[in-house]
Amino acid sequence: MRTLVLHPVLGKDARARDPEDALAEADSLARALDLDVVDARLAPVPRIRAATLFGSGKVAEVAALVAEAEIGLVVVDGALSPVQQRNLERAWKAKVLDRTGLILEIFGERARTREGALQVELAHLSYQRSRLVRSWTHLERQRGGFGFLGGPGETQIEADRRALEERIERIEEALTRAVRTRGQHRAARRRWDLPTVALVGYTNAGKSTLFNRLTGAGVLARDMLFATLDPTMRAVELAPGRRAVLSDTVGFISDLPTQLVAAFRATLEEVVDADLILHVRDVAHPESAIQAKNVGEVLAQLGIGEADAGRMIEVWNKVDLLPPDQSEALRAIAARTPRVCAISALTGEGVDALTAMAAEALTEPTRDETLRLGFDEGRKRAWLFDRKLVRGEVQTEAGYEVAVRWSERDRSRYGAL
Predict the structure, then answer these.
(1) Which of 265, 273, 230 lies closest to 251 in space, CA to CA?
(2) What is the DSSP string of 108-137?
(3) Region class of 15: left (phi > 0), else alpha (psi between -120 and 50), else beta
(4) pLDDT range class, residue 136, cuts 50, 70, 90
(5) 321 dihedral zone (left: phi>0; alpha: psi -120 to 50; beta)
(6) Cα 55 vs. chain centroid, distance in angstroms?
(7) What is the Cα–Cα distance from 75 to 77, expressed in whole angstroms?
(8) How far apart are CA 73 and CA 149, in angstroms?
């Protein structure tokens, strides 16, 4: 479909992103759907209009461009209200998709597992709930994606709000079962005494390339946004005798739709529960620092904050793409900074140092302590046993005296229960 990409430059935009970089990312998102992007441009918005977002002059300018270039889809790289989207479609006589809708459509195309497809559909329906129009709910389709773009071969049914809510409820029930299954898998890994290492990072930071480098797996790794959607887990040997389970997760992005964060909580619990988190950064990207901040914001939504700094390593990837002087400077900074490792997942440079750092991080000093738990603190007691931290236990009149051997990280995580 011939597509125009617009990035609104708001007059008081406090996101501190470079507009050209933001436009380039929006263009890449559209191309990730194999759309025929014929033009991509910035669109200044001195004052937000409730009806159309843009001023009347800009709306007329875009309408002329759409007609002249025979454009069928306009992607607005920002949030549009249902009213704004409907008015712009009428004015431009073309389909209009905002940033959230575009990302949801990409996820709909990329989901390969049943759980991934359910998560995306839940996010889509939550998004559509606020935009419910009787003739545009698209709860049934024949192809991938979820109906934003339209096209031949698709089936659409009219559904009222009650039908939508019932579908959401059924998906949530299915995902609840998936959460239980994942919890059982995590418990099994703990019984095997295998720690979990989770890869997180901005989309296209090189997580899948690093995953393949460490595990020898054939996970799709391409220079493309959201190349990985469904999580993949493999056993990996970090050091002689030191094995772990490595988890590759969906990439984050600025302004990640809240519906997606909520829908993918089941998958992202692998990150929340991980013993070690590797934050992979594309240091060759001009907005690397901003991307890192975006990742931190999503992690914060998952409950991972400063208190978890002890179980994180920052991986500065793609140093091979920098000019020699810059790459050498970054390597020097990383060498003297705790919990930072400069690598190239593509060439393998620095990966041995990273695995050694990860193995060391997972081998922490321990100490013995005795905890006194009441009979009503069964959840804490079960957590200690699940983590294989209990050395002995005595039942008393008031509850239990539990002898544990644990690390500071285990102690901190126990305190947060």
Answers:
(1) 230
(2) HHH--SHHHHHHHHHHHHHHHHTT--TT--
(3) alpha
(4) very low
(5) alpha
(6) 34
(7) 6
(8) 8
Contacting residues for 71 by C-beta, under 8 A, at least 6 apart: 2, 3, 4, 38, 39, 65, 94
The CATH number of 194-361, from 3.40.1280.10, 3.40.30.10, 3.30.450.20, 3.40.50.300, is 3.40.50.300
List the one residue out of 306, 248, 244, 252 whose CA is nearest residue 282: 252
Q: State the pairing for strand pair 36-45/2-10.
A: parallel
In this predicted structure, what is the pLDDT of residue 135? 35
With both helix axes pointing from N to C terminus, report the angle between 378-386 and 408-415 in degrees, rounded to the nearest 10.
150
pLDDT digits (tens, 9 = 90+) for 61-101: 999 999 999 999 999 999 999 899 999 999 999 999 999 88
Q: CATH says 1-188 is which class?
A: alpha beta
- CB-based contacts of 60: which residues, under 8 Å, 6+ apart? none
Neighbours of 359 (CB within 10 A): 20
Kindly list the domain boundaries of the chain, sorted by start residue: 1-188, 194-361, 366-415
- Is the pTM higher than 0.85? The answer reads no
Q: Which residues, other chains included, contact 125 with Cβ-Cβ below 8 Å and sequence gap of 6+?
A: 139, 164, 167, 168, 171
- CA 104 to CA 139: how far, in whole Å? 14
Cα separation of 254 and 79, whole Å?
Answer: 12
> Can you tell me the mean pLDDT for 230-240?
77
pLDDT category of residue 149 using cuts at 50, 70 and 90? low
Count Cα atoms within 13 angstroms, Cβ side, for 312: 18
Can 1-188 and 194-361 be said to share one CATH topology? yes
